[in-house]
Write a structure and sequence with these properties.
Elements lengths: L1 H15 L5 E4 L8 E6 L10 H15 L3 E4 L16 H7 L11 E3 L3 H4 L3 H5 L1 H6 L3 E3 L3 E5 L2 E6 L24 H18 L4 E6 L13 H6 L1 H6 L4 E4 L5 E5 L6 E5 L20 E5 L3 E7 L3 E8 L4 E8 H6 L2
Parallel strand pairs: 1-6, 2-3, 3-4, 4-5, 7-8, 8-9, 9-11
Antiparallel strand pairs: 2-13, 6-7, 10-11, 10-12, 13-14, 14-15
The structure holds 2-acetamido-2-deoxy-beta-D-glucopyranose.
GO molecular function: acid phosphatase activity; metal ion binding
InterPro entries: Acid_PPase (IPR024927), Calcineurin-like_PHP (IPR004843), Metallo-depent_PP-like (IPR029052), Metallophosphoesterase_PAP (IPR051558)
Cofactor: Fe cation; Zn(2+)
Length: 325
């Protein structure tokens, strides 16, 4: 039965991929709100405070009535998974995020480290049989009624990865960079245009704006950001830089939110030159995570450290956000 379902699902995906990304439905709560936690750059078998961050996520998840988890990629270090039977999946995921509030769907994108292993393994249904929380696709949509989250596979955008000598990347699904990116952006644009959600969020592994170690990703600035601006996106969430940060765009309502501090953090590694300091509202180079809560009118973003202490809280309404620019 489940095999049949799987076959059907795969067929449907192929058919609808003509201009439309695969969609997962997460119904809003009866009070009309949606709450989730965003975490990035985490899978290190509990090391570098990963287990402590996981514990605090469980506690906060309980408190906010967590609906699901968003993972911004670099799910398994150092080189992703080597196959769908890699014990690292259980050791860094199932055995770490054990709190009852975290027994919800986890929606993940791939990071560059995931591409250094068998990227296909993380997309495999075998992992869902091992732990049914796991949903990892290249690009897809989570439709939570008032909030629509558009997950984008950002690793293939970065041109340097194709010429790197120190690492090899699993490009089996990316025979041509430009063709892949063009078709992804076309599908994203179509999906954004058709979206009727109050809040539109884009999630990718790489930062568009960051003052952390890696800084801005120029390909995303050039190719992804204009589509987001044209189509009324409110927030962009990413990992890659091992820190927590909140940066406002200068000429659009878009807020750039980095949550890449799920385990090993970059301490003291700041790159302030790439941004106007005025637009940086918050930066923390230790470990932690972020929560997000939405209603039809309001959004609340909160960043926490390994003690579960609130580091930065940002509350806005749709109206305020769009009239401030
Ligand atoms: C764990 O977190 C504490 C508190 O932020 C920090 O002092 C410590 O260095 C962290 N340990 C590691 C291994 O990152």
């Amino acid at each position: 039965m489940s095999n049949l379902c799987l076959v059907l699902c795969i067929c449907v995906t192929v058919v609808v991929s003509n201009g439309e990304l695969q969609r997962f439905i997460e119904p809003a709560k009866s009070d009309g709100s949606v709450s989730f936690i965003t975490i990035g750059d985490w899978g290190r078998r509990g090391d570098y405070n990963q287990s402590i961050v996981a514990y605090q996520m469980g506690r906060i998840g309980e408190k906010i009535g967590l609906d699901f988890v968003v993972s911004t990629g670099d799910n398994f270090y150092d080189n992703g998974l080597f196959s769908e039977y890699d014990p690292n999946f259980k050791e860094s995921f199932s055995n770490i995020y054990t709190a009852s509030s975290l027994q919800k769907q986890w929606y993940s994108v791939l990071g560059n480290h995931d591409y250094r292993g068998d990227a296909e393994a993380q997309l495999s249904s075998v992992l869902r049989e091992i732990d049914s929380r796991w949903v990892c696709l290249r690009s897809f949509i989570v439709d939570a009624e008032l909030v629509e989250i558009f997950f984008v596979d950002t690793t293939p955008f970065v041109k340097d990865y194709y010429t790197e000598v120190d690492h090899t990347y699993d490009w089996r699904a990316v025979p041509s960079r430009n063709t892949y990116v063009k078709s992804l952006l076309r599908d994203l644009k179509g999906s954004l245009k058709r979206s009727k959600a109050t809040w539109k969020i884009v999630v990718g592994h790489h930062a568009i704006r960051s003052i952390g170690h890696h800084g801005d990703t120029k390909e995303l600035n050039q190719e992804l950001l204009p589509i987001m601006k044209e189509n009324g996106v409110d927030l962009y969430m990413n990992g890659h830089d091992h820190c927590l940060e909140h940066i406002s765009d200068e000429d659009s309502p878009i807020q750039f939110l980095t949550s890449g501090a799920g385990s090993k953090a970059w301490r003291g590694d700041i790159n302030p030159v790439t941004n106007n300091p005025k637009s940086v509202r918050f930066y923390y180079d230790g470990q932690g995570f972020m929560s997000a809560r939405f209603t039809h009118s309001d959004a609340e973003i909160v960043f926490y450290d390994v003690f579960g202490e609130v580091l930065h809280k940002w509350v806005t309404s749709k109206q305020t956000l769009h009239s401030s620019v």
